[in-house]
Automatic annotation (TrEMBL):
Residues 162-403 form the Rab-GAP TBC domain. Residues 247-258 have a biased composition (Polar residues). The lineage of its organism: Eukaryota, Fungi, Dikarya, Ascomycota, Pezizomycotina. Residues 259-273 have a biased composition (Low complexity). This is Rab-GAP TBC domain-containing protein. GO terms for biological process: negative regulation of septation initiation signaling. GO terms for cellular component: mitotic spindle pole body. Pfam families: RabGAP-TBC (PF00566). One of its GO terms (molecular function) is GTPase activator activity. Residues 1-33, 71-100, 244-276 are annotated as: Disordered.
Length: 467
């Protein structure tokens, strides 16, 4: 078949005889045009950069200074952000990825943390067990602590299926910087008998982790009562020393060994003394000025917070030392009068969730669900209220290594891990009445990924909320 001729084309496509035809441009002409266009674009960019340099120079210096401040703050070996927090822009709510992607991001944060670590090679070369047994190599305590934290972050503490480990309680004591407690001092507190908070303690201990067979098999109610009663006595004595002495008769305090004068036992055995002791007990009830500013001797929920210590410890004295240190140094606001630290933590759960997942936050708010409705036990007990107990211990390894304040982020991490079910539920309150079983490793990685999304002022507020 012959090819179509120009005459066979429709008139609209036929070239005009009056049109002057030019030869096609050579490839060299195209290259010259591209060079001119590139030069024009580069010149425009240079002029734009020059015009903005004067207005952004001060901002750049401020950003650089802020970055240096963050580096200095994160360099502290005691409490630092476990992931590589950047001073750059924070991810927007639309950037929220799936829980699986957050797990990958958290794992990457762990690897970055290891890559950026400045621990000594000698400390990194030994195992956690040997580090505890032999002490820090070359007497480099700071490097050994950093190495121990990284080992817990990456490898965890070796334990059996029941969560039992021969070194866990000692790792906790080191991370909490708990002092050595003499057995005689603890026994002196126990031998003082019922503390002012004894009735409230007995009202809670029998129902502590009743559905956990591991805890019930290993920890007796009697040991839990002794521990809580000893802590209540210790807190009571400190409160009596700090309370203004004008206008009242002070109660006798302990001597250096922790024991009280012999007359005190006789005095507390009378009905009047018992009533007075009950009146001195500080709980969440009442709104007196004293309750608002002083630490209490016992608040409901301390029994659950004490349970993992007794389960992990090899003696009640070790559990007492770690538990008392946690209450008085890490979360004193949780046992102060009206539990101001706990309520502040609940506000932060809502705030953090609104930052990292605004859709889930609005969904819960529209259903009338704020953190104070579903997260109170998780905040107060550092998630110890959620089984299984071995996973609680593994989560606490992470919290004690990098700060119990991160429990706020861990609670939000659990919500994000539940987001699909919560968003598709017309009654999310039913799901939040009891959180799903803890998976410490997934919670830890998700929390690490969420930390990067938090503004610095919010993270600082989390660090200080329990004080």
């Amino acid at each position: 078949m012959s090819s179509p001729t120009r005459e066979s084309l429709p008139p609209a496509f036929a070239p005009s005889l009056a049109t002057e035809l030019h030869p096609p441009p050579s490839p060299r002409t195209h290259r010259q045009l591209r060079k001119l266009q590139s030069a024009h674009n580069l010149g425009a960019a240079a002029r734009l950069s020059s015009s903005l340099s004067s207005s952004t120079s001060s901002a750049s210096l401020i950003s650089l200074q802020r970055f240096k401040e963050l580096q200095n703050r994160d360099a502290s070996p005691t409490r630092r952000v476990v992931s590589n927090r950047s001073p750059g822009r924070h991810r927007s709510n639309s950037d929220l990825t799936s829980p699986a992607s957050l797990l990958n991001a958290g794992a990457m944060a762990v690897r970055q943390r290891f890559a950026m670590s400045k621990t000594s090679a000698a400390a990194d070369a030994v195992s956690l067990e040997r580090l505890l047994r032999d002490g820090p190599p070359d007497s480099d305590v700071a490097s050994a602590l950093e190495s121990a934290r990284l080992k817990v972050l990456d490898q965890g503490i070796k334990s059996d299926n029941d969560g039992m480990s021969s070194v866990r309680i000692y790792v906790w004591l080191i991370f909490l910087n708990a002092p050595v407690v003499e057995t005689d001092m603890y026994l002196a507190l126990v031998h003082r008998g019922a503390s002012p908070a004894y009735a409230k303690i007995r009202n809670d201990t029998f129902r502590t982790l009743t559905t956990d067979p591991l805890f019930r098999r290993r920890v007796s109610e009697a040991s839990l009562i002794r521990l809580l009663n000893a802590v209540a006595w210790k807190l009571h004595d400190v409160k009596e020393v700090r309370r203004p002495r004008s206008g009242r008769q002070s109660l006798p305090c302990t001597d250096s060994s922790g024991s009280r004068p012999s007359t005190s036992h006789t005095a507390t055995s009378s009905p009047a003394a018992k009533n007075r002791a009950r009146a001195l007990t500080l709980t969440t009830e009442g709104d007196s000025e004293v309750n608002a500013v002083e630490s209490g001797t016992y608040v409901q929920g301390m029994n659950v917070l004490a349970a993992p210590f007794l389960y992990a410890a090899r003696s009640e004295v070790e559990a007492f030392s770690a538990f008392y240190r946690l209450l008085t140094k890490e979360v004193p606001g949780y046992i102060r009068g009206a539990m101001t630290g706990v309520h502040h933590g609940l506000e932060l759960v809502d705030k953090v969730l609104a930052i990292v997942d605004v859709r889930l936050h609005l969904h819960l708010v529209n259903k009338g669900l704020s953190a104070k409705i579903y997260a109170f036990p998780s905040v107060l007990t550092l998630c110890a209220c959620t089984p299984p107990l071995p996973e609680v211990l593994r989560l606490w390894d992470f919290l004690f290594a990098y700060g119990p304040h991160l429990n706020i982020v861990c609670i939000v991490a659990q919500l994000v891990m539940m987001r699909h079910d919560l968003l598709n539920s017309s009654n999310p309150n039913k799901l939040l009445r009891s959180f799903p079983a803890l998976v410490a490793e997934d919670i830890k990685k998700t929390a690490l990924a969420l930390v990067n999304r938090l503004p610095d002022d919010v993270y600082d507020e989390i660090v200080k909320h329990a004080q």
